[in-house]
Amino acid sequence: MSISKLGIISKPLLSTPRPSNKTLITLPFTAFLQLVKLSKALADAETAIALSPEWEKGYFRKGCILEAMERYDDALAAFHTALQFNPKSAEVSRKIKRITQLVKDKKRAQEVENLKSNINMAKHLEKLKTEMSDKYGSEEGWEEMFSFLVETMETAVKCWHESSKVDPRVYFLLDKEKTETDKYAPMVNIDKAFESPHTHSNCFLYLRQYAEDSFSRAACLVTPKSIISYPQVWKGQGPRKWRHGQQDGFFVQFETAFLRKLWFVPSSNEQGQMLCRDPEILDIGAHEVLPRLYKEKRSSS
């Protein structure tokens, strides 16, 4: 390789201010040199195969180089060819097994990343959307309530993905005309609510009064399962029996004067990343995290 070609690669590095850590300068160039070495080694392996098409070691070397280049599908093809010429090779079999798992893990990691970056709670709430339309009829505002719920759930999922937790809070959809916004905020922290029956009762009474005084039209509770000492709604028996496993996750309870809904959003560790599963609808009569916040009304439809 000519010096002029190397100059093209290194010139941008030389034209920028030098950081105190010289390693930062050499890293890109080191990676380039490594790629050059691997490319030359791959060419040598191809030459060896051309000279001796049935030589198992040629394909094995090619597979190892492709593996180092993270070209896993091509590496697998090379190792499978090597195995054809030496079916008893434990070394080749181990390579195939290892890279097959690498490919599987890489694919799953990409799937997890796609799931984390493409959150769409609305698709899981289509049935509720229809139910709200039927209950509220032509009354204005139910679409805003639905959007409020979707946005709250999606924000909670994003927060869980980023930090493996959500803060216990109740979010309120305030009335744009009636609410005294300097006095009532759209969110209330309830981090002490689930420590005991006493704190739970006090919190509920406060929230019910807050919902009324603020003229809020809907509320949405979000709380992680892990902080709830009371009520542990997943420990019921008979009709209250929990049917959603032992997974960690968080609850979302939606409150309006016309309807109440409750979900559990389970979470699992996938490829070292926390991933929220699809929300699971719960029987709110059996598993409510808080009692009713709004006085019940019947729809006009």
TrEMBL record:
For this protein, the record's SUPFAM superfamilies field holds: TPR-like
**Could you state a single Gene Ontology molecular function term?**
Hsp90 protein binding
* Record has Repeat as a keyword: yes
The record's annotation in PROSITE patterns points to: TPR (PS50005)
In which domain of life is the source organism classified? Answer: Eukaryota
User: Per UniProt, which keywords does this protein have?
Assistant: Repeat, TPR repeat
Repeat TPR: residue ranges? 56-89
Q: Which PANTHER family match?
A: STRESS-INDUCED-PHOSPHOPROTEIN 1 (PTHR22904:SF523), TPR REPEAT CONTAINING PROTEIN (PTHR22904)
Name of the protein in question: Uncharacterized protein
Q: What is the lineage of its organism?
A: Eukaryota, Viridiplantae, Streptophyta, Embryophyta, Tracheophyta
